[in-house]
């Protein structure tokens, strides 16, 4: 099966470092005398348009929005006990950013779980809150697309699971 058949025009896709985007179309460009096809993906959250070579889509991490089974795995992680490592904050922050930018919903859920503090945002440092909100936004957007609900509802669902844990 060709890569063009893997991703459907008009569908939602996930690009690891940018999150959920809409696959608008395929465009052809001539680069160094060669015709190359590009996926054109728009990310409304940060008003970004990405042109990604079709042949490099999968190796760059482009994937379909998570399935219900994958979502269940990610949500199960949220109800587990936090696994904060004993290391300098800067090192942990780097690890969290790597997990978020991986685009893996389970890894993003691990970041949410580990940074969640009872008492809400007032208990987090500024940088913890920034990373937490970044992870929350990425996972909530994917859940909102999958369940066809507003992003705010998806955030509420994630927060409810974190509070219940």
Please tell me about this protein's structure.
The protein has two domains: 62 residues, Thrombin, subunit H, CATH 2.40.10; 97 residues, Methane Monooxygenase Hydroxylase, Chain G, domain 1, CATH 1.20.58. A hairpin with a 4-residue loop joins strand 3 and strand 4. It has a five-stranded antiparallel sheet with strand order 4-3-2-1-5. Helices cover 46% and strands 21% of the residues. The protein has 165 residues and is an alpha+beta fold. Helix 3 runs antiparallel to helix 4.
Q: Do you know the CATH architecture of the largest domain? A: Up-down Bundle
The average pLDDT score comes to 89
CATH superfamily of the largest domain: CarD-like, C-terminal domain
Give the overall shape: globular
Q: Which regions have little confidence, pLDDT < 50, spanning 5+ residues? A: none
Main sheet makeup? 5 strands, antiparallel
Radius of gyration: 17 Å
CATH third-level topology of the largest domain = Methane Monooxygenase Hydroxylase, Chain G, domain 1
How many strands in all?
A: 5
What structural class do helix, strand and pairing data support? alpha+beta
In short:
The chain is α+β, with helices and mostly antiparallel strands.
Question: How do the strands and helices of this protein lay out in sequence?
Answer:
Layout: H1 3-6, E1 12-15, E2 19-31, E3 34-43, E4 48-53, E5 63-64, H2 68-78, H3 89-102, H4 105-115, H5 126-147, H6 151-164
Antiparallel strand pairs: 1-2, 1-5, 2-3, 3-4
Helix pairs in contact: 2-4, 3-4, 3-5, 4-5, 5-6
